[in-house]
Amino acid sequence: MGAAVEVRGLRVVRGRTTALAGVDLDVAAGTVTGLLGPSGSGKTTLMRCVLGVQRVAAGRVTVLGRPAGSRELRRRIGYVTQAPSVYPDLTAEENLRYFARVLGVDRRARGVTTVAEALDVVGLAAQRRQLVGTLSGGQLSRVSLAAALLGSPELLVLDEPTVGLDPVLRESLWATFREIAGTGTTLLVSSHVMDEAARCDELVLLRAGHILARTTLPELLRRTGERDGERAFLRLVRDAAPVRELP
Ligand SMILES: Nc1ncnc2c1ncn2[C@@H]1O[C@H](COP(=O)(O)OP(=O)(O)OP(=O)(O)O)[C@@H](O)[C@H]1O
Fold first, then answer.
1. Distance from the CA of 27 to the center of ligand 1, in angstroms?
2. Nearest CA to ligand 1 atom 10
3. ipTM (interface predicted TM)
C-alpha cells in the first residue's frame, strides 16, 4: 500500500527551539505507526505538521495525496489532542452530535461512522446520556476518541491517547485502535510509554527533533540486544551520535 503521510526535509522552529531538524518519513496506509520519544522530542510538533496547523521553516508534508492543511483533508483526518477537547456541560451524545454537525457528517450516508456507532466503538454506549463533566478521566478520553471517529476518517492522529489511563483501559483502547486499523484506517499514535511499542506495526523513534530509528519492536530488541523496549530505546539513545543542537 502507498504512504498515507509523506514528510520530506521537515524543519520546524518553535520559539528558540528547533523542534524538528530535517525529518523524512513515510507512514504506510492502513498501519498503526507509533511515534515514540522523550518529552520535548517533537512528537506533537510532527503531528501538528501532519494536520497542517504548524508553521514550518522548511520541507513539505503530504497527507492522503494532498498538501497538509488542505481544506478537503479536514473531513478525512481525525485528531485527538492530549487535552480532551469536549464540552463538560453537555452529555457524551450531545458532544458528538455537535461535532458531527460541525463536520457535516451525514447520518444517512452509508459507511460513515455515526454518533451511535462511534460511542459503541469506544465502549461508551451506556454513558451516552451522562454529562461529560461527570465522566471519569478514561471515559473522557474516549469521548474525544469517539469524536475523532465521526465520519470515518482515513487517517487518525492520536496524541498520547493513553496517558494517565490504567492498564486495563489502555489494553481496551489499543484493542479499539487495532479494530479501527483493521477497517483500513491509518493510525499515527504518539506515546512515551515504550510498552505500547509492541502494539504498533511500525515505530518512529524521535529524539531532539531527529528521527533516531524507524523500526519495529522485535527489530529494535534484536538490534540492541535488550529484552524490553524501554531499555532498548535508552541504549539506542546512548549509542547514537550526539545530536547537534541547532541554533
Ligand atoms: N509554543 C511553543 N513555543 C516554544 N517552544 C515550543 C512550543 N511548543 C513546543 N515547543 C518546544 O518544541 C519542542 C518539541 O515539543 P513537542 O511538544 O513537539 O514535544 P513532544 O515530544 O510532543 O513532548 P511531550 O511528550 O512532552 O508532549 C520542545 O523543546 C518544546 O519545548
1. 22
2. 14
3. 0.96
